[in-house]
Amino acid sequence: MFSKMMESLRPSPIQQMAERSRVASASGQDIVDMTLGEPDFPTPHHIGEAAVRAIGDGQTRYTPINGSVRLREAIVDKFSRDNGIETSLAEISVGCGGKQVIYQAMLATLNPGDEVLIPAPYWSSYGDIVSMNGGVLKPIATRPEAGYALQVEDLDRAITSRTKWLVLNSPSNPSGTAYSQAQLEAFCDVIRRSRHQRFFILADDIYEHILFDERKFHSLARVAPDLKDRILTVNGVSKAYSMTGWRVGYACGPKALIDAMTKIQMQVNSHTSSVSQAAAVAALSGPQDEVVRRCGIFQHRRDLLLDAFAKIEGLHTPRPEGAFYVFPDVRRFIGKTKEDGSLISTDVDLAIYLLNAGVAVVPGSGFGMPGFMRLSYATSDERLKEAAIRIRDAFARLR
């Protein structure tokens, strides 16, 4: 009855654990939910006001498929101002979140058997988007002791004649790894030297404004302007501006690719909400001081959690450089037994065990790295402190 693709499509591990958390909370259990990658701040007031004005002004009709002219102009200005990328309205794609933009890029380019290189750990949706469109996910393993950063020699070995995309997400979901200009330049040197030149590079910059310790963000298309005709730079308003529900993502890239993505969107959903687009114009063009302030809060929360986790014996947590996640190594706790004598066999077992202890996390297997776990610290200091206590006590009970 259903397509073969449906047989391989798996539920999102993030949403699975979030639903377990909701069920536990509904039953009366106090849960510190650290599953979803969603800022706990409200959308800034001036952005909401812009949406209300748009409704009053009658901006409730169809827009161009690739987004309103005003929004694409704001995106062109943003790329120039923030990223040093010079682009044009014809090279901009606007969709219902960055996820749709990425999906359309893969659908427009992948043929059966084409490989997509992604450093692991990776955002869980990448793999499913690739497989849904006939591609083959080819993870490139990273190491916690290297901060989960992709290594040049590993990238060099991974590129083959079947490579169609390389995906670089910086700062990363789930690890918080952020690449320096020198690291990006080294990756580009590998790409230039490779005898395989038919693949694209997807730079997922959705967390660019959540970067810590005074690091400077670097865009791949600025670092390597000679590769610009192969780079799709994806971004959105969801994380930096707390607009997850508004569903606005965007990208700039080579016109031929953008045109192909537009043909697909024409048949899928035409365009994202006209009111959301008006709000996104206000986000990108308006004051940015609240974005900076909230980044400081996220850095404080990261430090709070790292300090607490450092006191938990056996828990190793590399220091994130951005985003709002930690991705600790929990392999020392797998293979241990619970108080009832049952075995913790996998990171999924461990996540369920922690849920029963009052903390909802996502197992690392959902991000291509079994034996790890992702925790979002987009919640209050008080709840983070409580989560750390519950995790410490739960791990102490294992034998």
Please name the defining characteristics of this protein.
399 residues, alpha/beta, Aspartate Aminotransferase, domain 1, Aspartate Aminotransferase, domain 2, seven-stranded mixed beta sheet, three-stranded antiparallel beta sheet, 14 helices, globular, PyrdxlP-dep_Trfase, PyrdxlP-dep_Trfase_small, pyridoxal phosphate
How are the strands of the biggest sheet laid out side by side? 2-8-7-6-5-3-4
Q: What is the overall silhouette?
A: globular
CATH class assignment of the largest domain: Alpha Beta
What portion of residues belong to β-strands?
5-15%
User: Can you tell me the CATH architecture of the largest domain?
Assistant: 3-Layer(aba) Sandwich
Number of domains: 2
Kindly report the oligomeric state of this protein: single chain
CATH topology of the largest domain: Aspartate Aminotransferase, domain 2
Number of strands: 12
Largest sheet: 7 strands, mixed
Rg, Cα atoms, Å: 21 Å
The low-pLDDT segments are none
Pfam families: Aminotran_1_2
Organism: Pandoraea anhela
Protein name: Aminotransferase
Region (Disordered): 1-23
